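Feature request, filed as a ticket because there's no other form

It would be nice if the structure record came with a short human-readable summary line next to the tokens. Right now we just get the raw output. Example of a typical job, pasted below so the devs can see what we mean:
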Amino acid sequence: MEIGSRNRLIVALDVPTRAEALSVAERVGPHAGHLKVGMRLFTAEGPDLVRALKAAGHGIFLDLKYHDIPNTVAEAAAAAAALGVDFFDVHASGGADMMRAASAASREEAARLGLRPPAMLAVTVLTSMPSTSAQVVALAELARDSGADGVVASAREARAVREAVGPGFLIVTPGIRPSGTANNDQRRVATPREAIESGADYIVVGRPILKAEDPARAAMAVVSEMERSEVTP
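Raw output as currently delivered:
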């Protein structure tokens, strides 16, 4: 299924409070397919915020990077499914048993509640850390073979991952920095256009949108850049 450019954009709600999160969501929501709720915001505001965002019609990527024994991660994955999120993630380095347990638990809980099961993403190597393509590809192949629906990987490794896993396996790329913006603490960064042309299905953008004078306009600019990449021969 073709993913439109708007739906490819995931805006990271890297803000500390519910009020700020809802304000950003209202402004950028019309221009982004999904919003990402990470550890800071979820720890501060909890599942009620996720429910509020879902009730407002936003797609949600719950970015808590589960990594523990299989039973513990399976229970967390089931809880994520019960929230109705669209994506959640685990660390691929947690191993095959952990990923299989999480995938099965999330699907079973979604089926029990009559919900669409969330896509489980496996984090390969954080974009703040150095890595090799071989390392990322090996983790992506492990994730694919262990029930994951896709991976979180730098755009720098997206092409190698796509060649290894083929079509239909999701690639979500963080560390996206539109031209002219600072890298901050990310080492392996790329522009929206570079990410899509490298094989990414979704991109995650945080500070370049959140810190913009007009976040909605910044989000629209990211979508426009992806659209240009999609029509380039």
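Something like this underneath would help us a lot:
The chain is about 50% helix and 15% strand.
The mean pLDDT is 92.
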